[in-house]
Design goal:
The complex is a heterodimer. Chain A is α/β, with parallel strands linked by helices. Chain A contains 11 helices and 14 strands. Chain A has 2 domains: about 220 residues, P-loop containing nucleotide triphosphate hydrolases (Rossmann fold, 3-Layer(aba) Sandwich), CATH 3.40.50; about 80 residues, Alpha-Beta Plaits. In chain A, the strands form 3 sheets. Chain A has a 6-stranded mixed β-sheet, sandwiched between helices. The longest helix of chain A is centred in the middle third of the chain and has 16 residues. By secondary structure, chain B is an all-alpha fold. Chain B has one domain. The longest helix of chain B has about 35 residues. The chains are: A alpha/beta, B mainly alpha.
Chain lengths: ~300, ~270
């Protein structure tokens, strides 16, 4: 499938400091691309570069195969952007706000589209209320509705679930999946990896302005140390015990620390009984055993920590 | 084509926003109150003016219009200088630029929005001044129309200067601060010019200071929008067609240049905080 977004050697410098450095990645048409990184990693800067709000210091952005800089107006009509906070015209009502942007994008059947979006986000009864009277969650919904008003082919969302209640999170998730169903491409940035795990086809991990990893979600899961970690305290940790544990197919890694052995196991099944048996067969006496579950979130933290 | 569409929408949005703020109504009410007082005053002293053979209608219209122009100039300066700074501060500028809007259409939209508000105010005020003049028996003539045209040119200069200053700042407070500094600098320069003009050449330092101030005043007369009103008034008073044309061209060039600089600054500065 063709890439609708391509970042080629993309860098943004602020003075002598790089906001993002040498980003290279592509996003396939119709996919959901999760852009993950800790706060301050360069996610918002990347979105600003990909949407033409910031000009790169080096490199280029291609949207639908065309350089963004040279085709700015044409390409901007095909994208919708939800920034990290709901910045709205507070003096306007929800209807006026959406109508303004619908006019800006020259949307046909404007009224129908506005009503459709307001109904979808359960804002119909607040349609004529000034946005200054909206709660943060309601503003975020209107912000997403604004980004969708012209039915864009490519949607950028910067931390869209930040500050939302569980219902709001579900609504945003439904929007994203709904867009994918329509064949649209979604770029979503977040620092909540577990949330991204639910719907992303592709992911990019950014840390300190550099891309640590980019590819499919499966590739990410394989590349990071997920699973279970067992810490076994023995009377004496011998090579025989270690070699014996290494023969088990679900054991990924064995490390010795004094009289303790750390065993990393793939998957989430409880295999303590089998491990104990193997240790005993190898002549070991177990004094204590502690289990640590390493989920995707913890693994991501580990991954970005390694880059520091 | 698309730019014209965006310009119209941005201008309309600004007009609608302004019409929802009390400032515009306050400025209009102050102008109407001023016009009423002025009409009353001139009707009371009309006999004295008649005996001097001075055209009462002209004086009433000119003084009233100029006083009201002072109110509007201040109002337009403040609203223009905050217009972009507010959008930047609220980060709505960023959201707007995610759409099919570029710097040129944004600046022009802002300018036209401000001018539309002024023209609405001017129409209302001119009608009110005329009505008050008739009500107090002061008569009507074409002076108010001439002054209305001149004031539009002056306000155009003020709005474009306000927009330029607004592009330089990131907050409403900062933009007002910049406007105040600009106004104080212009005022001090004028005062210094007058002061140095009346001091005799008692030592070379004063002569140097005077020459420097005169040069600075000569330069800044192209920067201060108020100077363009003087050019306009001179043009109206003289029957010289060239001067009259220049009275229109100078403010138009000033406006065009400042809006262009604003576009360049906005491009350079970016729309993201």
């Amino acid at each position: 499938m063709a890439n609708v977004v391509e970042a080629v050697n993309l860098s943004k410098k602020y003075g002598n400091v790089y906001g993002v450095k040498d980003l290279n990645f592509g996003i396939e048409e119709g996919s959901i691309y999760g852009f993950i990184g800790p706060n301050g990693a360069g996610k918002t800067t990347t979105i600003a570069l990909l949407t033409g709000i910031l000009e790169p210091t080096e490199g280029i952005v291609l949207l639908y195969g065309k350089p963004l800089k040279q085709n700015m107006m044409e390409l901007k009509k095909r994208i919708g952007v939800v920034p990290d906070n709901p910045y709205v015209y507070n003096h306007m009502s929800a209807v006026e706000y959406l109508a303004f942007f619908a006019d800006l994008y020259d949307v046909e059947k404007k009224q129908e589209r506005i009503e459709e979006l307001l109904s979808y986000f359960n804002l119909m009864e607040h349609r004529d209320k000034q946005l200054r009277k909206y709660s943060k969650g309601m503003k975020q919904k209107i912000n997403i509705a604004r980004a969708l008003v012209h039915d864009p082919d490519l949607l950028f969302l910067d931390e869209p679930i930040q500050g939302l209640d569980p219902t709001g999170v579900k609504e945003v998730r439904d929007v994203i999946l709904g867009e994918k169903k329509k064949g649209k491409t979604v770029f979503i940035s977040s620092h909540i990896l577990s949330e991204m795990d639910k719907f992303c086809d592709q992911v990019g991990i950014i840390n300190k302005g550099s891309l640590v990893m980019s590819g499919s979600m499966d590739k990410l899961k394989k590349s990071i140390k997920s699973g279970i970690e067992l810490e076994i305290e023995l009377d004496k940790a011998t090579d025989k015990i270690i070699d014996s544990l290494k023969t088990l197919e679900y054991v990924k890694e064995v490390a010795r620390e004094g009289n303790k052995i750390k065993v990393r196991i793939e998957g989430s099944a409880d295999l303590r009984k089998e491990i104990s048996r193997q240790v005993t067969l190898a002549g070991g006496v177990i004094i204590a055993m502690k289990e640590d579950r390493v989920d995707l979130e913890a693994a991501f933290v580990e991954l970005t920590k390694e880059e520091k | 084509m698309y730019q014209i569409h965006a310009i119209k929408l941005i201008a309309k949005k600004d007009v609608m926003r302004t019409l929802r703020t009390p400032g515009v109504y306050l400025a209009f009410l102050m102008s109407c109150a001023g016009a009423t007082l002025s009409a009353y005053f001139f009707s009371v002293v009309s006999n004295a003016f008649s005996s001097m053979g001075v055209g009462l209608t002209d004086i009433y219209t000119s003084i009233t219009m100029l006083a009201i122009l002072g109110i509007y100039a201040l109002y337009m300066a403040v609203t223009s200088v905050t217009t972009i700074a507010r959008e930047r501060q609220d980060k709505t500028l960023e959201v707007l630029f995610y759409g099919p809007v570029n710097q040129k259409s944004f600046i022009l939209g802002k300018y036209l929005g401000r001018m539309a508000i002024f023209i609405l105010l001017l129409l209302g005020t001119t009608l009110y001044i005329t009505a008050a003049g008739l009500a107090f028996g002061l008569g009507v003539n074409e002076t108010s129309l001439k002054l209305a045209i001149l004031s539009t040119l002056l306000i155009s200069c003020i709005v474009s200067l306000g927009i330029l200053l607004s592009t330089l700042t990131s907050s409403v407070t900062g933009s007002i601060f910049l406007l105040i500094i600009f106004m104080i600098a212009m005022f001090l320069l004028k005062v210094a010019g007058i002061f140095l003009g009346i001091i005799p050449d008692i030592n070379p330092i004063i002569t140097i200071a005077r020459n420097m101030t005169v040069t600075l005043i000569n330069v800044t007369q192209y920067v201060s929008p108020v100077e363009y009103l003087s050019i306009g008034i001179d043009a109206v008073n003289s029957a010289d067609l060239l001067k009259y044309a220049a009275g229109f061209l100078y403010p138009a060039a000033y406006t065009g240049l400042l809006l262009w600089i604003s576009t360049v600054i906005l491009k350079k500065k970016g729309v993201k905080q």
